Amino acid sequence: MKRSITLITLCVLVVVSYGLYNLKYEVEDLQDHANSLRAQMDEDRRAIKVLEAEWAYLSRPDRLQKLSQKFLPLQPTVAKQVGNVADLRLKLMDEILAPLPVLDTIEAANPAAIARPSTPPAVVRQSTPPAPPPAADALLVPVANTPPGAARLESVQ
Question: How far apart are CA 67 and CA 60, in angstroms?
């Protein structure tokens, strides 16, 4: 009986010793990893400080002012650049309020209609007849989308 208790105690002692041995080296490995992470964080903090100093140096207002004058062709607005309402192209009110044509999309989306090549293609239907030509006394409305050649403003120097 004494021998079995001694043998069991000896086995438990060996298992616990082996566990403590492994635990000790795992803790040392984790400490080494933590130290390397701390060193990397310190290095990154120093790099951030250098980058912040460089940013402060590069974003100085006097330096940016010189660069903007050198590379940007922006100048203050001159009174000649501002146009009048008379410079805008005018559209007839009937042209603005005319309804858009309606496409027959139901027949075009039908797969059976696509399979039949003998049927004519879908036709554009208008819900109202086209607007008559403008009369001389029609109401004109200014529109800002002038064609490129129609602008009467002087160019910027």
Answer: 11
